[in-house]
Amino acid sequence: MTRIVPATRRRILQAAAASSVVALAKAPAFAQAQPKKLVFAHVTASPESSAVAFEAMAKEVTERSNGELAMEFHGGTLLTKELEIINAVKAGNIAMGDPGGAAATVFPEMGVFLVPYLIASYDQAYKMFNGAVGDRLDKQFQDKYKLKVLFFYDYGFRHFWNSKRPIAEPKDLRGLKMRVQQAKVFADTINGLGGVAVPMAWGEVIPAAQQGVIDGADLPIVNILALKAYEVSKYCSMTYHNYGPTAAVINLELWNGLTESQRKLIADASRNAQTKVRQLTESVDNLDKAKELLEAKGMTVNTANVDAFRKLAQEKVWPAYKQQFPELWEEIVATKV
Predict the structure, then answer these.
(1) Which residues belong to CATH 3.40.190.170 in the chain?
(2) What is the pLDDT of residues 300-325, one digit of tens each?
């Protein structure tokens, strides 16, 4: 039997250790930790304002996570209905999503903010949603829906578009069949202001307008552009009648399973996305910009007697909602900027 001297034994052990290091270095890539995939679904794609912001958010989270997170944004391709998206987030089938303009349908707690002319300005709205009101809603959504609010945002104030005539005074709305979302507050708004509310999912709106089933609807300026309402409409009337907040949310169990640094990264990216969508939305929500953008598409843009519409809303719509949401109502009214 060959006897190994101590020096030879030492060299053999050193060689074995070196070969182990080489073997580890050549280990296949799939053996390394894979980034956690975060899928974000939204009903529409760019250039819609929130889609632009969500795309930027996905890129920021992925690039800044050092390989820990891979956030994918799907606009109008993965799931095409707001309720489907929120149900998928609740079930954990996707990580993140939002109800688009249908927030009050899937989150009835947000219905009060849609009461016509109750919210007076963007500054008032963001002061509430980035403050105590938003914190309270976030807690409610976590407790009731198992969803964590990433940030609140909006598409802007709504204005009427239709194929019949300019709407400058409440009398101009009388008899017009106007599509509304399926939350009750939208129908109450149109009916209260003198129109005829026709509840309808967005996917049916353009064909319905083409066939004369509806005369028009209401949308913020940014979405009249992004959703091409100008193809089935002649007039846009700047009534500013509904403020429409919504929220980007993440599955609560998934959120709680992230590390503290990952949660901070997503929160930072969410604030950046909120700032971006706000800038994109508000930059077009004025008469001059609306005329510039929409009249180039063949529409006629007109001002409206907002005071007359507000007075009618206060008489016809406000009392029931003030009774339904007494404490929150007073908090909204008391929020000054």
Answers:
(1) 34-154+245-282, 159-242+285-334
(2) 999 999 999 999 999 999 999 999 99
User: Which phi and psi angles does 302 have, rounded to 5°?
Assistant: -130, 155
Mean pLDDT of all residues in the chain? 90
Superfamily of domain 34-154+245-282: Bacterial extracellular solute-binding protein, family 7 (3.40.190.170)
Query: What's the confidence (pLDDT) of residue 311?
Result: 97
pLDDT value at position 275?
97
pLDDT band, very low/low/confident/very high, at 15 (cuts 50, 70, 90)? very low
Report residue 324 CA to chain centroid gap. 25
CATH fold of the domain at 159-242+285-334:
D-Maltodextrin-Binding Protein; domain 2 (3.40.190)
What's the mean pLDDT in 170-182? 95
- pTM confidence score: 0.83
Contact 74, 39 (CB under 8 A): yes
